[in-house]
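hey so i finaly got around to running the thing on NAD-P-binding protein from Russula earlei. pasting the sequence first so u can double check i didnt mess up the copy paste, my clipboard has been acting weird all day
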Amino acid sequence: MVDILIVGATGFCGRHAARYILQHPERSKYTVGLAARSRSKLASIGLPLDDSVQVFKVDIFDARAIESAVKQAKVVLNCVGPFWHYGTPVVRCVFPDLNALSARAYAGLTILCPSACARHGIHYVDITGETPWILDIIKEFDYLATKTRAVIVPSCGVDSIPADASVHLASKALGRVPLGASLTSAGLRGGAPGGTIASFFAVFEDVPSERIKDSARDWALSPVRGARSPAERLVYRLGRRAHVGGIAVFGRVNRAIVQRTAGLLELHRRSARAGDAGGRGAAATGSGDLACYGPAFTYTEFTPTGNVVSAFLLSLAIGLTFVTLKFIAPFRWVVKHLVTQPGSGPADHTLESGRLEYVNVTMSDEPSPRCAKTIIKARGDPGTLLTAVMVGESALALLFGELTPLAAGGGVLTPMTAFGDSIIRRLKANERFEITSGIVDSPDEEVDESRKRR
Ligand SMILES: NC(=O)c1ccc[n+]([C@@H]2O[C@H](COP(=O)([O-])OP(=O)(O)OC[C@H]3O[C@@H](n4cnc5c(N)ncnc54)[C@H](OP(=O)(O)O)[C@@H]3O)[C@@H](O)[C@H]2O)c1
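ok and heres what it spat out for the 3d tokens, dont ask me to read them lol
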């Protein structure tokens, strides 16, 4: 048995996640297994391996090999992407034998191969940012996971922990009152690993248009619909201040996860109120540090720019690139061969000089709205070094049972509905991260965490 099994440990992000887990200050408290399709590649990438690290030879398309490796783990950390191509077999295997489940659990789940499923519920985290894939695993496995109490948490990298954490912290700072508009200036500086670029191409080339449309809908991943999201613009007005910015490349992905958090919290509240013994999180008592975001809540993200002209040019460039890559196959073919290829990523100096700065402003939904400001700053390449920290700490939170009451019910969750404050505590303890949140009179004001909540 191993405590944490890292699948895809030879990938560019997987090896950073593996190194993080292998060199963590709490390393003496857990055992690690690494799964890869090539043992020699695993041995050649400079990971600090010792005799305690178990190695599993696993091809993601070999159901028996995955099943056998996954069954020996308490937590699976999956870095094999593009997830649209490779992810589902790993998630399938984290569920117990379907034969043990009620006939109801079978409904709509014939796609699962019962003999390939693990016998015990096993927790799972990954670093996907592919919403069509997340929608698929929600449809296929969410209900089942609530029966087996497996906690499945996609998107534990730069998509979408900072976004999800910002709103969670705003909700706490405002004293858990219903929220109104929430706006994030998402500043990211760094390189793009080849696997991330390959994931974009996977979405352009392989995901059917209908599935893209389905997963891009407002509240697509949420079990409950909320207020309509405002359209992306160049100037956003919140409180007394105007914010200028262009399209955030991962804005829609993050919005979908934050909306799922809002929807799951609402569902949890309704089941608790109805005393629903079979409902999601029924095993939980109380709501812990979680509070509903309310019916007026909306979330928007933009990339900060100096002025409206550069915001317009940025949005135009991103829009044109996406449209040409999606619809002009020869252009896509050329670009695909020019960009960083899977398996490689930014150079060491780019990894260290990368930065993340998320500034979130959230208004309360009250007769006299108040404003919470949350700043998440981190040093290091967001898609690689910081993603390794975030997914690594998520896996540890799962392993050590640092979960919210809602997570006691299992299911396909989000970082905040699964971990809540515990992941924020863990990130704050990491020297790369600096996180502050509090009430402000105006969005320009510095955050003073000691300021009293009402
Ligand atoms: N959401 C976020 O914040 C975030 C951040 C970064 C990355 N990502 C995502 O993470 C994923 C990985 O990115 P990356 O840059 O690390 O990609 P990568 O370097 O190409 O790594 C892919 C990994 O998948 C493994 N793999 C591929 N096919 C396999 C198979 N049939 N069986 C077993 N293993 C297989 C590869 O093994 P080999 O080494 O043997 O080829 C490698 O370990 C991408 O989907 C990317 O979009 C997300």
